[in-house]
């Protein structure tokens, strides 16, 4: 009679957690980039595990910047020891916008009902065995930048050197300042990128200066200014809607005509001479600029 070999597995010998891994150290999550919307965490056992056909009860509880979120079971590794769980930001009715802070695992749920080893020993649930890393989430958009027009009647020097436009924005945010000629829509809009230094009353303003080439491309006219701030996670403040504008004048006045109220003069006569300019020359023209010859 042949012998029957039976391997007896100790039922109390339940599987134990080898380690639990939250997303990698330094990971950053936001709702801007598709790949950064998905928070992935893993649970590893010291032996091969088997998942029931209906694994809907198998979840991880996450602490996402102080708010409770649930990551669902996604897959098991080829050696059947590591389970992967995922949570996609904004995929549920929860509002994941406006969060900023660490991400951690607080509990494994349902493992004792849908997860077991080959002998049928159920896996433990709970949170006592968990250690995790602390990646971060940032879905908090910067506040809208503020725009201050320093020179309502700007010339070439004031927009290229002095800075006719000053910006306040979240510290370290990348601010794109757009200049658009609303008097001549055929002119291409020009952009200047600056870095915010804060929004408080004491924070330093940042000057948005145009290059000579940009001024020439904009041309003269009413220049409308808008700004958008983005933080390191690419969250956007949106574009400012308050109308900020200045008049850009880069062409010097020219003399269009010179006329006299007297055609001929003799010694002792006087005449009124009128100079007509392309625009008001202001203080740039005076009697010292007139030269008389032939008399």
Approximate helicity band: under 10%
Largest sheet: 8 strands, mixed
How many DSSP helices?
A: 3
Query: Which series of helices and strands comes N to C?
Result: EEEEEEEEHEEEEHEEEEHEEEEE
- Name the poorly predicted regions: 1-11
According to DSSP, the number of beta strands is 21
Distance separating the two termini: 145 Å
Strand-pairing-aware structural class = mainly beta
State the strand order across the main sheet.
1-3-7-6-5-8-10-2
Globally, the shape reads rod-shaped
Strand content: 35-45%
Q: What's the gyration radius in Å?
A: 36 Å
Mean pLDDT: 83
Task: Draw up the topology in text.
Blueprint: E1 17-21, E2 28-29, E3 38-45, E4 50-51, E5 59-64, E6 67-76, E7 82-88, E8 100-109, H1 111-114, E9 115-116, E10 136-138, E11 146-149, E12 153-154, H2 156-162, E13 165-168, E14 174-181, E15 190-195, E16 206-207, H3 212-218, E17 221-230, E18 236-239, E19 244-248, E20 255-260, E21 273-277
Parallel strand pairs: 2-10, 12-19
Antiparallel strand pairs: 1-3, 3-7, 4-9, 5-6, 5-8, 6-7, 8-10, 11-13, 13-16, 14-15, 14-17, 17-18, 17-19, 20-21
Would you mind describing this structure in some detail?
There is one protein chain. The chain is mainly β. Helix content is 6%, strand content 38%. It is built from three helices and 21 strands. The protein has helices spanning 111-114, 156-162, 212-218, and strands spanning 17-21, 28-29, 38-45, 50-51, 59-64, 67-76, 82-88, 100-109, 115-116, 136-138, 146-149, 153-154, 165-168, 174-181, 190-195, 206-207, 221-230, 236-239, 244-248, 255-260, 273-277. An eight-stranded mixed beta sheet has the order 1-3-7-6-5-8-10-2, with no helix packed on it. Strands 12, 14, 15, 17, 18 and 19 form a six-stranded mixed beta sheet that branches. A hairpin with a 2-residue loop joins strand 5 (59-64) and strand 6. The relative contact order is 0.14. The model is unreliable at 1-11 (pLDDT under 50).
């Amino acid at each position: 009679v042949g012998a029957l070999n039976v391997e007896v597995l100790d039922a109390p010998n339940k599987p134990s957690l080898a380690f639990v891994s939250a997303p990698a150290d330094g990971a950053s999550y936001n709702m801007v980039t598709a790949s950064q919307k998905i928070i992935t965490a893993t649970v590893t056992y010291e032996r091969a595990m088997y998942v029931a056909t209906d694994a809907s009860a198998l979840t991880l509880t996450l602490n996402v910047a102080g708010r409770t979120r649930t990551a669902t079971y996604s897959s098991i590794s080829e050696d059947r020891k590591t389970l992967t769980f995922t949570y996609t930001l904004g995929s549920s009715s929860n509002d994941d916008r406006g969060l900023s802070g660490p991400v951690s695992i607080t509990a494994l749920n349902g493992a004792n009902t849908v997860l077991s080893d080959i002998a049928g020993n159920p896996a433990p649930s709970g949170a006592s065995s968990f250690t995790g890393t602390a990646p971060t989430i940032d879905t908090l958009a910067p506040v809208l930048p503020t725009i201050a027009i320093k020179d309502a009647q700007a010339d070439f020097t004031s927009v290229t050197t002095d800075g006719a436009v000053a910006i306040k924005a979240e510290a370290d945010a990348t601010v794109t300042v757009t200049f658009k000629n609303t008097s001549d829509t055929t002119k291409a809009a020009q952009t200047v990128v600056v870095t915010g230094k804060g929004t408080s009353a004491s924070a330093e303003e940042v000057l948005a200066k145009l290059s000579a080439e940009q001024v020439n491309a904009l041309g003269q006219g009413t220049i409308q200014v808008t700004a958008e701030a983005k933080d390191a996670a690419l969250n956007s403040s949106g574009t400012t809607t308050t109308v900020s504008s200045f008049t850009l004048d880069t062409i010097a006045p020219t003399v269009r005509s010179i006329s006299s109220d007297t055609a001929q003069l003799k010694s002792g006569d006087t005449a009124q001479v009128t100079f007509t300019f392309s625009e008001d020359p202001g203080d740039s023209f005076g009697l010292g600029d007139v030269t008389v010859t032939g008399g």
